[in-house]
């Protein structure tokens, strides 16, 4: 029997409608709404489309959303000044600076300039540190946080399971491992992290009850690398040439979907899997940041 599909699109729609209700209630109670600022430097088409999707999803949930686009040659000091202004802006509760940034800008410096209370990406070292020491009252990075929600909402709690994460980036692999290791709901897993220097990847991935792949290369995981009955989460989003399509490309994940769906128990598709959840968790973090600002 082929694997059941984990539809990120459907789970995201459910969470977004809950968020819209939460925002409406907050507005009725306080007369204010959460505000999100997205900052894009340059004109990379993929980044432009992600930022557009984030803004339109925010607006649909009733979140005030401002998109700031700067030219690719923007000096670092100017971006830091913009971030300082957003930190001081009482109508903005979440700040997202789309990565990657152009070469003249030190990414780490920019991430450190964001007020940790407005860091809805969860990339500020204070939030990274809190998460990796097990804090639960922290804004968690959207992609891995979305993966946790997908697991919980399909009855695939990571508690007590062996979770193998392939990839050790700061935006996906590492925070994924931190979340899975946390005590409590959504965590309590036994975690292995693999990467490009892992000699026999298949020997590791075959041990996984839950396999999470965030590499950025199509077909990194094939059916022979998956234990029968495993849950497979494909974070990868890769554009591959497809001259017969309108856009000229199609999206594939890091997992050989057609092969792996024959051995896995559950699998996420690309598109329509983790991607929509990432955007939804950004909205969720923005509403959380707004609520916390009311408590201060
Ligand atoms: N759906 C979503 O919302 C999101 C999707 N993505 C997608 O997820 C993928 C990963 O993104 P990101 O983490 O930023 O990528 P990075 O390039 O930052 O990290 C990739 C990781 O994969 C490892 N790796 C590379 N090749 C191999 C290999 N052959 N075997 C095992 N490990 C390997 C690298 O190892 P090493 O550290 O040794 O170099 C690195 O740790 C991309 O396709 C990206 O587009 C990213 C963010 C959000
Ligand atoms: N500061 C920062 N925060 C991020 O969260 C961040 C970032 N920088 N840089 C780039 C990555 C990538 N990322 C994605 C978000 C949504 C989809 C997504 O919704 N994908 C759709 C398809 C989209 C399409 O059609 O192109 C899907 O998989 O179904 C994908 C990828 C967030 N990132
Ligand atoms: Mg750079």
Polypeptide structure, described:
There is one protein chain. The chain is of the alpha/beta class. The chain has two domains: 31-115, Rossmann fold (3-Layer(aba) Sandwich), CATH 3.40.50; 140-275, NAD(P)-binding Rossmann-like Domain (Rossmann fold), CATH 3.40.50. It is 40% helix and 16% strand. The chain has ten helices and eleven strands. The strands form three sheets. The chain has a six-stranded parallel beta sheet with strand order 1-11-8-7-5-6. The protein has a three-stranded parallel beta sheet with strand order 3-2-4, with helices on both faces. α7 links the parallel β5 (162-166) and β6. The longest helix has 23 residues, at 8-30. It is globular, with a radius of gyration of 19 Å. The N and C termini lie far apart (52 Å). The mean pLDDT is 98. The protein binds NADPH dihydro-nicotinamide-adenine-dinucleotide phosphate, 5,10-Methenyltetrahydrofolate (GUE) and magnesium ion. Keywords: Amino-acid biosynthesis, Histidine biosynthesis, Hydrolase, Methionine biosynthesis, Multifunctional enzyme, NADP, One-carbon metabolism, Oxidoreductase, Purine biosynthesis. Its EC number is 1.5.1.5, 3.5.4.9. This is Bifunctional protein FolD. Belongs to the tetrahydrofolate dehydrogenase/cyclohydrolase family. Homodimer.
Kindly identify the CATH topology of the largest domain.
Rossmann fold
Given helix and strand content, the structural type is alpha/beta
How many helices? The count is 10
Helix content: 40-55%
Proportion of strand residues: 15-25%
Number of domains: 2
Distance between the termini: 52 Å
**Could you say which small molecules are bound to this protein?**
NADPH dihydro-nicotinamide-adenine-dinucleotide phosphate, 5,10-Methenyltetrahydrofolate, magnesium ion
Radius of gyration: 19 Å
Widest sheet, order of strands:
1-11-8-7-5-6
CATH class designation of the largest domain:
Alpha Beta
Rounded mean pLDDT is: 98
Major beta-sheet overview: 6 strands, parallel
E-strand count: 11
| Name given to the CATH homologous superfamily of the largest domain | NAD(P)-binding Rossmann-like Domain
Label the CATH architecture of the largest domain. 3-Layer(aba) Sandwich
Uncertain residue ranges? none
| Mass-distribution shape | globular
User: What series of H and E elements makes up the topology?
Assistant: EHEHEHEHHHEHEHEEEEHEH
């Amino acid at each position: 029997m082929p694997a059941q599909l984990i539809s990120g699109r459907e789970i995201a729609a459910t969470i977004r409608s809950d968020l819209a209700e939460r925002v409406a209630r907050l507005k009725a109670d306080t007369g204010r709404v959460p505000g999100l600022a997205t900052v894009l430097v340059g004109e990379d088409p993929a980044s432009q489309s992600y930022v557009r999707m984030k803004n339109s999803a925010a607006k649909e949930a009733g979140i005030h959303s401002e998109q700031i686009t700067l030219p690719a040659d923007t000096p670092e000091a100017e971006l830091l000044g913009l971030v300082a202004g957003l930190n001081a802006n009482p109508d903005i509760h979440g700040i997202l600076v789309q990565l990657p940034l152009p070469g003249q800008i030190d990414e780490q410096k920019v991430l450190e300039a964001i007020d940790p209370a407005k860091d809805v990406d969860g990339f500020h070292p204070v939030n990274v540190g809190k998460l990796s020491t097990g804090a639960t009252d922290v804004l968690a990075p959207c992609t891995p946080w979305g993966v946790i929600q997908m697991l919980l909402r399909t009855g695939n709690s990571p508690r007590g399971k062996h979770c193998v994460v392939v990839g050790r980036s700061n935006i996906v692999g590492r925070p994924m491992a931190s979340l899975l290791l946390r005590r409590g709901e959504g965590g309590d897993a036994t975690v292995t992290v693999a990467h490009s220097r892992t000699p026999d990847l298949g020997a590791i991935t075959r041990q996984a009850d839950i396999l999470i792949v965030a590499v950025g290369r199509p077909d990194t995981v094939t059916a022979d690398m998956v234990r029968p009955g495993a849950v497979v989460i494909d974070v990868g989003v890769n554009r591959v040439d497809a001259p017969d399509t309108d856009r000229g490309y199609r999206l594939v994940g890091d997992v050989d979907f057609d092969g792996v769906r024959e051995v896995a128990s559950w699998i996420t598709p690309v598109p329509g899997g983790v991607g929509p959840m990432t955007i939804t968790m950004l909205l969720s973090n923005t509403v959380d940041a707004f609520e916390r600002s009311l408590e201060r």
